[in-house]
Amino acid sequence: MKAQQTTKPTKGEMTAQRIMDAAEKLFARQGYQATTLRDIAEDAGLREPGIYNHFANKEALYAAVLERSLRPMEQRIARLLEAPITPAEALALPGEILRLNAEHPQMPALFYQAIQAFHEGSPAGNAAEWMLRLFAQGRALNRQVMPGDDDSVVLQGIAIFNLCCGYFLAQPLLRELAGIDALSDDALEKQQRLMERVMRAFLIG
Amino acid sequence: MKAQQTTKPTKGEMTAQRIMDAAEKLFARQGYQATTLRDIAEDAGLREPGIYNHFANKEALYAAVLERSLRPMEQRIARLLEAPITPAEALALPGEILRLNAEHPQMPALFYQAIQAFHEGSPAGNAAEWMLRLFAQGRALNRQVMPGDDDSVVLQGIAIFNLCCGYFLAQPLLRELAGIDALSDDALEKQQRLMERVMRAFLIG
After folding, report:
1. Can you spell out the DSSP letters for A72-139?
2. Does the model's pTM come out above 0.95?
3. Residues of chain A under the 50 pLDDT cut
4. Which residues fall within 8 angstroms of residue A48, CB to CB, at 6 or more apart?
5. Which residues fall within 8 angstroms of residue B116, CB to CB, at 6 or more apart?
6. Number of CB pairs < 8 Å for A and B?
7. Residue to substitute from A194, A195, A202, interface B, most B β-carbons within 10 A
8. How much is the ipTM here?
9. A118 to chain B: nearest residue by CA?
């Protein structure tokens, strides 16, 4: 479950990853509430009790799914916050976030669900806390490089978030309109350049 | 139900609008499948049979909800397609789409639901057809003004769509992070300028 696994994962770790993959997909497709541990077990190819060897309950599994995709982003931004950010780093960051997201392309649907469910308390609260923490980090970073008032910095941060997450939500549209596989390296590269261009416009103000 | 009603709406028309408002909200929040005509009637403050005076069934109501919010956009873009588009018109269009969307701020959730349900057939098919028709129009327009290959034009069109729709989906986040009411004129004005800036970056290439 480490971001960069150098040793071969154990069978148990591989099963845990498979459970998280299934959970990520089903939570995104059906919503957290409507998804049962039984659905997830079935999708992951095991029986429901098998899940409890890895996760205490549905809430713990949800927390692990969030952690797996969001911790690497948090760590990346935290590293950038250790010193004043350079324009080159600021320009590259949206594309880096896109690439991290591409490893878990179902997550954006979960992020928007969590935003709609703000204030509904745990376990959506868990996701809401993640969102707010990441946005606070991003805002601290963007303030260093974006001109304009605080509202503009917030709106521009949300715009970058929407460009990134919307790209993954629009996957069927990209396929339908232009035969583009959004997860192909070629398409990700183009979207990365697009986001860099938008970020450049935001830095100029 | 006309986009620009000059005469006073009848009581029947007002009831139909109220039913569509309730349907829009509940479809967006719960999804089309999970929403019953009984839920919608209750939210609109009438009994279920009352809906049938205005809409034949749930599918017809869904079609009317889509029509109400998307027809004005389609007409606006169709007018622009009648003559070569000027750069000023191209720059202003994303903001105009934002303003039209602001009259039905629940719709973006429905658009993304429809995109996920592409190929699942009617009634999501109805929404999918709308999406594809609007994107085809937008693409014809963007081709006139955006440099770059066709994939870039498609990706940039989707980026504008995501900036617009994501803005409304992120409403709770805007409130939480900066106390911004996304539907206030001030915030819409700022988002409009942001989208114009992005569009300018896309026109330069």
Report:
1. HHHHHHHHHTTSPPPHHHHHHHHHHHHHHHHTSTTHHHHHHHHHHTTTS-TTHHHHHHHHHHHHHHHH
2. no
3. 1-2
4. A37, A38, A41
5. A29, A109, A169, A172
6. 132
7. A194
8. 0.92
9. B172
